[in-house]
## 1
Amino acid sequence: MNTAQTRRGLLDTVTMVQAGSVQPQDLINESHARAAALEPNLQAFSYLPAQPPIATAGYGPLAGIAVAAKDLVDTADMPTAYGSPIYADHQPSDDAWIVARLKDLSATILGKTVTTEFAWRHPGPTRNPWNRNHTPGGSSSGSAASMASGSVQLALGTQTLGSILRPAAFCGIVGLKPSFGTISLKGVRALSQSLDHLGVFARRVDDVAYALSLLMGGPGAARHAPFQVASDGLTPFPAPRIAWLKPAASPALEESQSALLAGAAKRFTEAGAIVESFVLPTEFDALPEIAATLYGAEGAANFSDLVARFPDKTSDRLKALVESGLAISATDYIAARSAQLALRAAFTDAIAGFDAVLTTAATGEAPEGLSQTGDPGLCVPWTTLGVPAIALPAGIGPRGLPLGIQLIAPFGENLKLLRVAKWCEAALAFKASI
């Protein structure tokens, strides 16, 4: 198999299809062959058809692009189990909005990827493609692994706490969580309606930018400013002013991750950026507690009936979420929602004068073992605020696994974040290769 071809980025693939140098069906066949060959060891897919899917008709802007869809996203022509045995034979009657949109753009859904149970904390069998003894992160486990392994050019993920950014960091790829509400969640199984985001994995910043420019909007989506991406990608932001936010003591960073973050700040400074140490005002310390109230109450509302009806088919972790959520009062929930929105607005003022915030998405390399998917704590503040965030691969740790950085911008500033990220990507000059 031509490894260089299978690892080609999304925008490069689009350019080749549009030039007529490769046929969409040949690309889909190639992606399917790679996914099938890797699946026995990687276990990234909850459903991969035995034969390559027929490439979606037409030569739209995503013709020939193989997409891995997280098994939280409804597909009318593929099973959707939401990571739960309760829905093992579930076949949705309709595509989720995002799937219909991808097909309208001539993309092809290659298969469904493993998620933790209902995107909560009970992990599936997926392994990290860098080292099969380590987790790929979660809950978008299969999407991150399939993207990192070169099986697809684009993968869909969802994030309620850290389920896009952390797997991207663990797997050495780019993960984008746009501003809350940027992409419609119609047809995506809810965990927490106040926190759930739909985002994407790809190989480079230009790839996720191109995808987002085509996928934003849909029923129930917020009115974030649209943008276009040319065939040669985004124009990088001029040397940015970056707020270097050093994470709090908990969760503690591994020494290699701290060194990588400091090294990235130094590299950005040497490339012409202004990088200044930064501390958020103390009122933002409440964000993890706010998140816990929101996902607890909303998780209980979404899953208490299933836990009661199927006690033998729901995990202890889901039962614990429901139990804690049912103890949350309506007044505490309303107060948390109000505080979330107030802090979202305050964040823009808090980082005034900076173009982006620099921090990390994970404490270090992917943990060994598959019994858990890593600590999401370093992503929770930004998910709670609903601000756009992106993970970039930036180095390799002492165990030979990827390390990444995270960049954040004010609410609604999807394009600005992507342009800053492209500048940072060039300054890092790091290429992850399994």
## 2
Amino acid sequence: MPLSDTIRQQVRARAKNYCEYCLSHQDYIMGRLQIDHVQPVAKGGSDDLDNLCLACELCNQYKWTKTDAVDPETGETMKIFHPRHQTWSEHFAWNQEGTHIVGLTAVGRATAIALQLNNPLAVVVRRNWVKAGWHPPSVDPIV
């Protein structure tokens, strides 16, 4: 059953129109931010608000049904970052240029790899956003 417009509006408002994984803002991307199931429905996830977040098409596409990823530093399998239960700035930071997301923790590093948060397209776009003065966003704009 599709999500209601009310639920979609609640998710969008809670996220303040930011992708909750890479912090891309709706105003700066081509296409509409999508509703993502943090725990995918295919893996038993529900439509509860606590399991929904806002994601850009790239993050949503790379995440797909992933729930775990390997931390490249420790080799441990970690749960992917959960925007409802974890704080972005505790797991990620921007590099000095504001173009790359740096994983600060095992969860952050594993998520950055799994969702390809620094894929070449994202980095080029962020570089242009920085030049325009639109990026990086304030720390935890979603909080």
## 3
Amino acid sequence: MNGGICPTCGLPKELCICEEVAKEQQRINVNVNRRRYGKEVTVIDGLDPSDIDLQELTKFLKSKLACGGTVKGSSIELQGDHRDRVKELLTKKGYSLDNIN
């Protein structure tokens, strides 16, 4: 028990459930935008960066989709059209399919 106590839920860090609760409350939008020279970019909006580690989620999605991407503000941008695969991967990570548009 060297992790301390979570300031949000008051449980030890090992038992903290804040991120799981945050996953259930997120309303996520997955869209594809067309950029310069006809390039497509998948944009994932609606994630709260204070509750969820966007860098870790982006790294996971980039490795599974074999594409480049970045975090801009509170959204994730992935190179290419990955709408269907992103929805599938987010449900595997614990997000509710009903909250993903």
## 4
Amino acid sequence: MENIYPKPIIIMHWITFFLVATVYLTGGNPTTTGLLGQIHVIGGISIFILFFIRLVFVFVYKKSIPQNKIINQYQKNLFKIVRFSLYLSLCVVPIAGWLALSSFTDNFKVSFLNLPLLSSVRDVQYIGELHELLGNAFIAIVGLHASAALMHHFIFKDNVLKSMLFNRNK
């Protein structure tokens, strides 16, 4: 197969997927959930950092990223909306999480590091709910993204899904 993503992009994609799944499964108030809260916060911070690394990779490998055939204008527009929503979520949901954590407590340690928190949002109740809403919307968009990949594989029978897998055998 010649239409494949560069290996660093593939690795970044699947690390991001793993982190998003982990963060989603460890959701809740990190100040009351112990180790799961620690995992959730570390995962959120990692997703936020990886978002910027991912942008650099996309820029560096721009010419090597496959340009898959778009069936029609509707599909092209939907692709752009979903991609933009995924990227926006990778940035906004962790920021909302940091604000939510700041609203819960004045002090939160990850391992031996004290996280910098904003005291100005302390006790603002809706921020945690906003973070949860954005996180659930993000998961729904991820589901749409995964469904589209499966549709390309099983219905359109093109190589869109295979282009993001490590095993590139047809």
